[in-house]
Fold this sequence. Notes:
Helix 2 (22-35) packs across helix 9 (232-250), helix 6 (115-124) packs parallel to helix 7 (162-172) and helix 8 (190-204) packs parallel to helix 9. The chain has two domains: 22-265, Alpha-Beta Barrel (TIM Barrel), CATH 3.20.20.10; 269-385, Lyase, Ornithine Decarboxylase, Chain A, domain 1. By secondary structure, the chain is of the alpha/beta class. It starts with a helix and ends with a helix. The chain is built from 13 helices and 18 strands. The chain is globular, with a radius of gyration of 23 Å. Helix content is 30%, strand content 24%. Its EC number is 4.1.1.20. Specifically catalyzes the decarboxylation of meso-diaminopimelate (meso-DAP) to L-lysine. Substrate binds at residues 298, 302, 329, 356. One of its GO terms (molecular function) is diaminopimelate decarboxylase activity.
Amino acid sequence: MQSKDLLQLAEQFGSPIYVYDAEKIKSQYNRLTKAFSKVEKLRINYAMKALSNIAILQLLKEMGSGLDTVSIQEVLLGLHAGYDPEKIFYTPNGVSLEEIEEVHAMGVQINIDNLSILEQFGAKHPNVPVCIRINPHVMAGGNTNISVGHIDSKFGISIHQLPHLVRIVENTKMNIVGIHMHTGSDILDIEVFLYAAEILFDAAKNFKNLEFLDFGSGFKVPYKKDDIETDIEELGKKLSKRFNAFCTEYGKELTLIFEPGKFLVSEAGSFLVKVNVIKQTTSTVFAGVDSGFNHLIRPMLYGSQHHIENISNPKGKERFYSVVGYICETDTFANNRRISEIKEGDILSFRNAGAYCYSMASNYNSRYKPAEVLWMNGEGHLIRAHETFEDLLKNQIPLPITTATA
């Protein structure tokens, strides 16, 4: 979609606002399935924590996607969006046995990532098909907060605990149908991914009734022009060949599963904000906008970079700006960034705003969350309205008058 379309949507729906391009989501989905077209049984489970709007879930469902969920609430959203329970995977971390059993009762595929819960669940439900999340102890990811397969990670069952894991399975007579791993996000070196895959293949040999292997995701997308990204086509060529060979060795055609989130939706998203004020100090020119890290926390949390364009003046002379928000705390989106000359009232567009942006938004400073719009077939569809004051009050319970005035 073009800048003129984004400007029209900002005018139509107001700012701040998240906009998602349906065609980009579709093209990313098709790119991934094409890269692994030589695998007979391929399944894509969208990692909905990246962007959980019902309309996005429905769009991906129409393309044939399943869902990767990490909470019972995400499972419920998936069911509400029309997904069949067997198309939903549930991979929680640190949740109670009660929540896992509640999700199991919904008919969803359970993925367990610690020995304690595995043994308890297996003792009570030995016939339930279960997937096991392995920690391969491979460091991969663009940031320590999104690297989840290393030795100090809270995620997964350590590959070094495999003998203990096998003993639990043998003692409980559990029905293990899948093995899963996820090393981290923003993976650049596919050789590291392939190395971790070999660890998963070796672990899989200990289980005789497998139906699938789940390789997680974490593929890096470009954040700026000429940025590096995961070579999906090369990974598809190499991993497909190795996976097919393993299936022959295993004696059964297994399903290869990926659970991409950011890869599918990140580049599809634009976050539009209006410039409230241009403030020049002795050393810096600030562009203060009608948003903050309550709407887009990734630059503050991860140090992530989102390319920023002045779509109101795309061909203007470039100047250096620090783009900051309206939150009463350090709230910086970009420091000394080259952007086309900005005036008060201009609309700025933050690129790569489809993944982990709205889904991590909050009401900090009692600010409202923004609207979401899906750009599809040449027009904008409102898929979440701007919040209102009534939304802030919802579920709050004031003190009785007699107590408050006492």
